[in-house]
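User: Round two. Same drill as before: sequence, then structure, for each protein.

Assistant: Same drill it is. First protein:
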Amino acid sequence: MRVKRMSRKILKLAIMLTALLLTGTGCLFTSSVSDLYALPKMPEQYQELERQIGELISGGAEYAAPISGSNLQPVQMVDLDNDGMEEALIFMREATGEKPLKIYIFRMRGGHYQRAAVLENSGTSIYSISYTDLTDDGRMEIMVGWRAGAENPALTVYAMEGDIPVPLLNTTYSRYVFDSAGRGFVLLRSGSEERCVVEAYEVSESGTLGVTSAVRLSSTAAELAGGQMISGCFSDGVPALFVTGVSADGSTAMVDALRWAEEGLKNVTMSSATGYTTESYAFRGLFPQDVNGDGVTEIPEPLSTPEEGIAGLVQWRQISERGSSEIVMQTYHDLADGWYLELPGQWQENVVVYRSEVGSYETTVTFTYQNGTELREFLRIYTFSGENRELRANRGSRFRLRTQQNTVFAGELLANAPEELELSEEQVRSLFHLIVTEWVGGEN
């Protein structure tokens, strides 16, 4: 799938044309200074597309870009039919009519973009759009979320038969994610008793798109509104889906781990006795993720009650497709300052952590060995911001860990570390990580 901004392509063409003007033969330089600074004209096919968009706007339409998901541009360039030529999709809202939301599709024909089709619906906004080859025929299906007010979006999946959009599915939903191959997707919706269900959709050999399996979840729609749904992997390599709900008071997270295989969906963490998941933990702002980079999704379990905004000590567990779990890592997560430290195995007993703020521009986290009443501080992590942060990070025996635009992270090995807890500066650097949040533009 290739989606890109038309403006980026036009800018690139403009830069190339400008370069030709500046490096051409001498006769090109007979133009006036004002001519040299004039913007080059767009290629003719884009001028024609611009003209047709202008006609739509003159007729009362306005741009209405998708408000969620990964594709948020009002004009999107996508090769829908895999012919090497990108179609232009224009997202608009008209002032009148029963179906004011429009997605115009323009195809390149005879060297010009011409209107080929339009997708339309009632509602207040185009919620999201995705492109994927569900039918495995080399052509993209178009998945559009249409929204009306505060209601859940309505999902329509279109297959393009030439210039004719053929709806394969119309349904309401809360969110959806694709499988790893992009040949199917799972859809989250409200079920009976307010608890949600997850449905798996695939295209059959006859070309129909429908539900192949469904499972019930532990959380309600309200609890899932503050949660997360991600695809991942169990410890034994089986594809998985992790759906996390957060309680109304924000204190507890509940994780349903679903096996996502050819045989269908199965909730491996659902208790047959209670009808709810066996996987819940005190919520500290952390969700299931592949924290150690081994390709398997881990579930966080905070071990301490931190101050507000800090996750504190966290152990991470992997789950097998049979529902058994194993602890694979322990970390200290400082969410407020944006970093975490992997804790070596020998640290996971008799180590306590203290965090303190020194004014407005410095925080320190001290790792301390505790044996009865004996306390021995052996490592300190600093977060510096404000003026002179570089100087403060290099003071004394401190060493640099990471540098961001307005923040410097430093470490310091304290002299009285027990032998079994000793680390080198390079080892501390390898255990130190910044918390990186990927921007995905919302959910489909």
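Second protein:
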Amino acid sequence: MNANPEESAGACCTAALNIGEQARANRKLLGSVLTAAGLVNHPTEWWHWSFGDRYRAMVTGEVAALYGPVESNSHL
């Protein structure tokens, strides 16, 4: 489900309890694999994971993100 918590009655949340057993197991497996790879999850969007950006830096307590905005080369 690709919806916000209000539209999905919370089913879009990673730790949702109002989804099927298989869906919970799949989310748990996905979470363990992606977390082990260094990604962090947005808890209200089970499908949304971050690596290297400012959200991950905030969640992990890093001083800065691994990467930032890229300047446009539109003048080329």
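Residues 57 and 65 are 5 Å apart (CA to CA).

User: Perfect.
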